[in-house]
Design a protein that fits this description.
alpha+beta, 5-stranded antiparallel β-sheet, globular
Length: about 140
């Protein structure tokens, strides 16, 4: 595939520590609406927004970092990426009824079609891919 044949649209938003997770969800919902997903794939929109909530919360709470949120739609996958300044990579942990929280990456694993994390020179990126349901 040549570079000229790939079409994508994307958006980016930096969310400082004092930004609410709701701000991230509302921002993302508007972009998903512009793609028509709120009508054509509302369940996928819910999954994307919950994933964004978890990843931004992880950046703010666990990494004590701003969260850089990027959404990219390439007509096959909606890529959701969150960068933070911590080098500690997240891992799904077994649910512990004695401990509140700690289930975020289990949710991401259950909701996203795929996800991965990778270290960067200044932290890490957690990336999740969502494919809308096919119609027909």
């Amino acid at each position: 595939m040549s570079e000229s044949s790939l079409r994508a649209v994307g958006w980016a938003r930096s969310l400082p520590l004092n930004a609410s997770v709701k701000t991230a969800r509302d921002w993302a919902r508007e972009h998903l609406r512009s793609l028509g997903w709120t009508v054509s794939a509302p369940e996928t929109v819910d999954d994307v927004l919950l994933t964004i909530s978890e990843l931004v919360t992880n950046a703010h709470v666990h990494a004590q970092s701003a969260a850089d949120l990027v959404l990219t739609w390439d007509s096959t996958c909606l890529h959701v990426s969150v960068h933070d300044r911590s080098r500690q990579l997240p891992v799904p942990r077994p649910a512990d009824p004695e401990r509140p929280g700690g289930r975020g990456m289990l949710l991401v694993d259950a909701l996203a079609d795929t996800w991965q994390t990778r270290p960067c020179p200044d932290g890490k990126v957690v990336h999740a891919c969502f494919q809308p349901p096919t119609t027909g």
